[in-house]
Design goal:
The chain has one domain: 3-Layer(aba) Sandwich (Rossmann fold), CATH 3.40.50. Helix content is 35%, strand content 15%. The protein has 10 helices and 10 strands. It is an alpha/beta fold. The chain is globular, with a radius of gyration of 18 Å. Strands 3, 4, 5, 6, 7, 8, 9 and 10 form an 8-stranded mixed sheet that branches. It has a two-stranded antiparallel ribbon with strand order 1-2.
């Protein structure tokens, strides 16, 4: 996205009808576009880059953490697909980049089905453009809010694509840290997991301040308060609570680069500010 690109975009619904144009609000930092910037993408504006650079100044590992999170997504999805997963519910997708859930899963199993969900119309614009050529019946993109899990589970597009009576891989990558404690993130996850049958999986990555100084831990969320979503860092113990009642797959809840790495982790990987884990529902 260039700085001169039209900032009000119109997107099409599944029936081909245009929706109200989306104001991209380029003057307000946006977490999805900031994340895109960390990954080296081009779908961001000056306000996003300025806010992201403030975070980088506080925590130089943030770029490494973002890339480690993306790599964890790919390894986790690949592993689950190799173990037989064919249905994925990916909530909080963010702006699409190469190696997304459906691309990774369908490289292993072309019949894998992925329902993407995000509450942000900006993300929906990008997602629908990227997926316009995707195979019919294998991928869908829905606008819904993680804070209303029952609405997600009842959404017609989700229900049409996924059979919730069969195992589903529930993916919550880098999204729960945008849910405040007041919105009961543990209750949200429990509602989603309880609706899925035995054999389903839960994969989570979550930002943490466990490896930061007290000053760093305070400054990071403060920057996001000027953006369109707030940031709630959580400790290892707090993230582990999301897996209560589930069988945590090896190697447990670890920093993202340390979850089943393709290559030997670097020493700094132990300080990456993302906890990552996958659990199975018995």
């Amino acid at each position: 996205m260039t700085d001169h690109q039209e900032i009000s975009l119109e997107w099409m619904s599944g029936d081909g009808e245009p929706h109200t144009p989306v104001d991209l609000r380029p003057e307000v930092p946006h977490p999805a576009r900031m994340y895109d910037y960390y990954l080296g993408g081009k779908d961001n504006f000056p306000a996003d880059r300025a806010a992201a650079e403030q975070v980088v100044e506080i925590s130089p590992l943030v770029r490494i953490s973002a890339r480690a999170n993306r790599a964890f997504l790919q390894r986790a999805v690949r592993h689950l697909t190799e173990q037989g997963a064919r249905q994925f519910l990916d909530i909080g997708t963010g702006i699409p980049t190469a190696g997304n859930t459906h691309e990774t899963a369908q490289q292993v199993a072309p019949d894998a089905r992925v329902a993407y969900v995000d509450n942000d119309p900006i993300v929906l614009v990008h997602s629908r453009a990227l997926l316009s050529g995707a195979g019919q019946g294998t991928v869908t993109v829905t606008q819904a809010d993680l804070r209303d899990p029952k609405a997600i589970l009842a959404d017609p597009q989700v229900r049409e694509l996924l059979d919730l009576g069969r195992p589903v891989a529930l993916l919550l990558f880098a999204v729960l840290h945008f849910v405040d404690d007041a919105d009961d993130p543990y209750g949200i996850v429990r509602t989603l997991v309880d609706a899925l049958p035995s054999g389903s999986h839960l994969a989570i990555s979550h930002a943490t301040a466990d490896h930061s100084t007290a000053a760093q831990a305070a400054k990071g969320p403060a920057i996001y308060r000027s953006a369109t979503a707030q940031l709630s860092m959580r400790s290892h113990a707090e993230v582990l609570r999301f897996f209560d009642g589930l069988e945590l797959l090896e190697p447990g809840l670890v920093t993202a680069p340390q979850w089943r790495p393709d290559t030997a982790p670097e020493p700094t990987d132990a300080e990456v500010a993302i906890w990552a884990g996958v659990g199975r529902k018995a």
